[in-house]
Amino acid sequence: MDGILPRVPDRVKRSVSRRLRSTRDAGMHRRCLIVINLINGRTVAHTAEVVGVAPSTVRRVAQRFVELGEAGLLDGRQDNGEVKLDERYLSILDGLVRSSPEDHGYRRPTWTREMLVKTMAKQTGVRIHLGTMSRALKQIGARRGRPRPTVKCPWSEAAKNARLRMIRRLIETLPKGHVAVYEDEVDVHLNPKIGLDWMGKGQQKEVLTPGQNIKQYLAGAMNAITGQLTWVEADKKNSMLFIALLHELRNAYPRAKVIHVILDNYKIHCSEITQAVLASLDGRIRLHFLPPYCPQHNKIERLWQDLHAAVTRNHRCPDMPSLMRRVRGFLQRRTGDAQARYLKAA
Fold this sequence. Notes:
By secondary structure, this protein is an alpha/beta fold. The protein is built from 12 helices and 5 strands. The chain has helices spanning about 10-20, 25-40, 45-50, 55-70, 85-95, 115-125, 130-140, 155-170, 240-250, 270-280, 300-310, 320-345, and strands spanning about 180-190, 215-225, 230-235, 260-265, 285-290.
């Protein structure tokens, strides 16, 4: 069949055209497009070129349409027998990709589709094609991404959970006149952090770097209840940066009886000079340390992630003053938005 389809009634052509416009199924859309092109007199080769498929695909679709009419436009895979990608198969696959190949006897630490096909065949007795595995991974929403490096907390689970419960209870039962904040520091580099971005086909965007890196440091404290942000800036990340933040907190909350600071175990938070300054404040500022290596429990960490995503990643600022203006603008907008949400909720 290298010419056109046999003449079809106008009502059939209109019906296929309606199906073409209304379907959301990519396969159905492609088959309807093939048939419409053939009905309009285009050759198999021309149709294949227009639709972007192989000539053999055009012939196969045309043959099914001749034999079955519009029913031939339906997905023929429904006649292939029992569905392999059933709910059970997809559930087991979801659990598998969340594990490591090393948990299943492989030396390779990252999954390949071939390894997934082989392992799933052992676990389910169902062997599928690599292309089908790609479809299965898409159905469960799996993606290829960068793992997040973590360090295991050296504390026991009981000790770790006890400390986290204490901090959570402190925030939930905060006495009147007391304030609780999450504290952390963040580095701002003039050389931009490189991150993912959308690009056109065949394009690789370039990020111009100034060359010699310059750093600026922020110490920030985010109110655990209102989201209000207090921060200070410095050229060095040392005890003086943290002490400057403590004084800024005292100014930001002049009526607070006690300011509870929830923070990590970084050395500047417990240095001798820091301890001396805390002692001079007569207990008005109290530090509550999180378990080691538990940044996910410090709520201000999310703010720093958003700062990098919205400002510092792939930035084009030529110098540190212009970059810091953007950083300040972002933080001011963020704390303003947080205050507005708090007042609206209240």
